[in-house]
Design a protein that fits this description.
Number of strands: 9
Helix content: 40-55%
Number of helices: 7
Strand content: 15-25%
Mean pLDDT: 78
Shape: globular
CATH topology of one domain: Heat Shock Protein 90
Radius of gyration: 25 Å
Order of helices and strands: EEHEHHEEHEEHHHEE
CATH class of one domain: Alpha Beta
CATH superfamily of one domain: Histidine kinase-like ATPase, C-terminal domain
Length: 219
């Protein structure tokens, strides 16, 4: 007798290989695909966290690199365009009230800052909700205001959203999207440019985000 992966067989006999029925084989394939898909999502999330940490560290060090005059409305329109597939999928209404405003800074970091704010407003919105974007400036400071619908949030918890890895609300935790670094990166980039981030819970639900930045020539 010989021991083989298929069991005990007589010497010289072919090993017995277990046969799976078609439906069992299909279930195994589905399970393997789910495992592979979950592993890919996990790796992608880890990559986003690492990238976010690097960007956060860069912004916190004030390593701005090349400085140039940047159109704030252009950054917003580019970010909204990038989010259009999810905006359409969630049937969101986006209202823009944008005035010409130019700020001085690193265009890549400022684009990331605005993208994170718009992404946050879309990602954590409700089906059929509203995203309202506006800006104003007084000759010294430019303000970008982004408001979105969503669940009612606790004001004390909202103030912590600018800190790394802090996420609140059942929807934010349930989706598993993001790395909890989006608004902390926004805060760090704004601060590195001499600005600030303000977060407020909307009484009707959702979040109000205000970014203040010095206009070009006042940094």
């Amino acid at each position: 007798m010989e021991f083989t992966p298929g069991g005990l067989t007589a010497a010289g006999a072919s090993p017995v290989i277990p046969q799976l029925a078609d439906h069992e084989l299909s279930q195994r394939v589905i399970q393997i695909r789910r495992i592979v898909s979950a592993s890919r999502r996990l790796l992608a999330r880890i990559a986003r966290i690492l990238e976010g940490l690097l960007l956060l560290a860069r912004a916190q060090r004030g390593a701005l690199g090349d400085m140039t005059a940047v159109s704030l409305p252009d950054l917003v329109l580019n970010a909204v365009t990038a989010e259009q597939p999810e905006i359409t999928q969630k049937r969101l209404t986006v209202e823009n009230r944008l005035l010409p405003a130019t700020v001085m800074g690193n265009e890549v970091l400022l684009a990331l800052m605005v993208t994170n704010v718009i992404d946050n407003a879309v990602r954590h919105n409700v089906e059929g909700g509203l995203v309202h974007i506006s800006n104003d400036f007084d000759g010294v400071v430019a303000r970008l205001v982004v408001e979105n619908g969503g669940e009612v949030l606790d004001e004390s918890e909202v103030q912590l959203l600018g800190e790394p890895f802090h996420r609140i609300g059942a929807e934010r935790l349930a989706t598993g999207h993001g790395a909890g670094l989006g608004l902390s990166i926004v805060s760090a980039i704004a601060a590195a440019h001499g600005g600030a981030l303000q977060l407020t819970a909307r009484p009707e639900g959702g979040l109000r985000v205000v970014i203040e930045l010095p206009v070009a020539g006042h940094l």
